[in-house]
Amino acid sequence: MTKQLKKDGFAVNHKRVLRLMGLMGIEAIYPKPNLSKNNIPHPVFPYLLKNIKISRPNQVWGTDITYIKMKQGFVYLVAFMDWYSRFVVSWQLSTVLATDFVLEAASNALVKATPEIVNSDQGTQFTSKDYLNLWNTDTTRISMDGRGRFVDNIFTERLWRTVKYNDIYPNC
Q1: What is the model's pLDDT at position 1?
Q2: N or C: which end of the chain has fewer CB within 10 A?
Q3: Residue 2: CA atoms inside 13 Å, Cβ hemisphere, count?
Q4: Same domain flag for 8 and 72
Q5: Residue 35 pLDDT more than 60?
Q6: Looking at the predicted structure, is the pLDDT value of residue 147 above 80?
Q7: What pLDDT, on the 0 to 100 scale, is given for residue 42?
Q8: What one-character DSSP code corresponds to residue 150?
Q9: Is position 116 within any domain?
Q10: pLDDT level of residue 70 (50, 70, 90 thresholds)
Q11: Is residue 139 assigned to a domain?
Q12: Do residues 152 and 49 make contact, with C-beta atoms less than 8 angstroms apart?
């Protein structure tokens, strides 16, 4: 803004422009700090997988959502994966990032088996009441990654890398 005003013949400096923009309520469009923080209070469960030895099927499931860029926008993919066998128990695609496709994938997975621990990040889909109510806390404990800790869910992240680089990107 300052550069353009100077080109137009106005003698201004960046401090004056910033002050006047503030008075007029004009601001640049850019990602604000803490953009990914959820303003709605939600339960946060501890990360239960530190130093745990995964030694049998259905001991730990991991879940996550990734996006896939398409010509006309994005689709979102959720998967529930058994960490022992690396078997994808259930997956679901959606054109909108909502909770319902996560609930459908979780319900489909629970028809096949019940994990002892299910691990996810702290995304709104995984902290919603509907999602948390799917799990019987007598048989399944809920584990959540720390904020910004993608390595806590490394097996699912590796699945996304494999799917994108082996199946999606070469066929675009």
Answers
A1: 86
A2: C
A3: 9
A4: no
A5: no
A6: no
A7: 73
A8: G
A9: yes
A10: confident
A11: yes
A12: yes
- State the pTM of this model: 0.73
Residue 49 lies in a domain: no
Which residue in the block uniquely carries the two structure tokens 């004009």? 26
161 in the same domain as 91: yes
Bridge partners, 93 (sequence order): 77
Q: Which run of H or E residues covers position 88? A: strand 87-94
Name residues whose C-beta falls within 8 Å of residue 64's C-beta, 6 or more positions apart in sequence.
Answer: 78, 79, 120, 121, 153, 156, 157, 160
pLDDT band at 33 (very low <50, low <70, confident <90, very high): low
Whether residues 96 and 136 share a domain: the answer is yes
Residue 32: predicted pLDDT: 61
- Give the residue numbers spanning the domain of 20: 1-30
54 within a domain of the structure (yes/no): no
Alpha-carbon distance 115 to 149, whole Å?
22
Q: Are residues 22 and 71 in the same domain?
A: no
CA distance 60 to 41: 26
Number of domains in the chain: 2
* CATH (domain of 99): 3.30.420.10
Q: Count CB-CB contacts under 10 A for residue 151.
A: 9
Token pair listed for 166: 């082996």
Those residues whose C-beta lies under 8 Å from the C-beta of residue 80, and which sit 6 or more positions away, are 61, 62, 63, 88, 89, 90, 91, 105, 106, 109, 118
Mean pLDDT of 77-103: 95
Residues 26 and 68 in one domain: no
